[in-house]
Amino acid sequence: MFGTILLAFMLQQGPANGVIRGQILIPTVRGAERIPVTVQRSDGPIVARLFSDSLGNYEARGLPQGTYEVIVVVDGYEDVRQPAAVGGGIFGAVVVNIVLREKERLVVKPPSVDDVVDIAELARKHPRKAVQDYEKAREELRKGNDSNATELILAVIKLAPDFYSAHNTLGTLHQKAGRFREAESEYKKARELSPRREEPLVNLGSLYIDEAAARSKEGKEVVGRILDAALDILEESLKIKRSTMGYYFLGTAYYRSEFLEEAETNLKLALQVDPRLPVGRLMLANLYMRQRNWSAALEQLDAYLSENPKAVDSLRIRETRTRVAGQLNQR
Asked: Which of 255, 318, 317, 314 lies closest to 287, judged by CA?
């Protein structure tokens, strides 16, 4: 789970011809890339092709009154077609902010006892068939077969309703598929079964962060309420255990809530617990870019590249680093 940059825009009076402006909101440091934007009339013709600036801002001018679609297509993210209506006079300037969502978002969850589970211990607590199916489900997960894993986990829970790890794992599968209420139910069940473990609470916090991003079009009040729930549950998790991912997700929730000082504090705490946490480095880089603190952003990007030289996204991060260095040199 990763930080989306949320900046407010003021609706200004535009000229006689219409304007559509806004920002592309993207959940990784790719926000520093220039993103292609297409503006198309609802009745068919394309009227503008342009690129955002390095912070995701874009603007299309010279538009007659009418209805349009703002189209953004970025590899790895869901295609977006956002409607916009351009009027006359003070209604001739329209703000359209667009949130990009990853097509196949990998749920970043805390190190779980599932990863070092003692099968002999599980066998003493649950039916042998349930334990065997749970192991098969974990193997399907390792292969990326989420559908098969889900079916197996459901069978496990039917055999052993009090199987903590099965409920927690099923929650992550529902979360990855965007089934928020189902994921919430499983995490809460896992929490009931093992109230002294922090993992279900951390996962619940990450779930609410995902849900807030998915429901961004419903307005700040809805998003704020969901993020408040994330903040509360993650604070509670840290009372049980000061975990790396607890701090990371708490920092992310503060970031999304636009409390940047608190976000920075908790992201730094996550890196204190795990100094080589890749997502922590990138999230801090996002935060510093948002603050236009280019030197601090550069420091985090350099640390990420040094610690993860073979990362699959290293080329993209290097490109971002070049742009950030360019901003620093313009001072």
From this structure: 255
In the chain, the domains with their CATH numbers are 18-99 (2.60.40.10), 276-331 (no CATH)
- List per-residue pLDDT tens for the chain, 331 residues long: 333 332 222 233 334 478 998 888 765 544 446 789 999 988 888 898 998 887 778 899 888 888 889 999 887 677 888 888 887 665 678 888 887 776 544 334 443 434 444 444 455 578 889 989 999 998 998 888 899 999 999 999 999 999 999 999 999 999 989 999 999 999 999 999 999 999 999 999 999 999 999 998 898 999 999 999 999 999 999 999 999 999 999 999 999 999 999 999 999 999 999 988 999 999 999 999 999 999 999 999 999 999 988 887 788 889 999 999 998 888 6
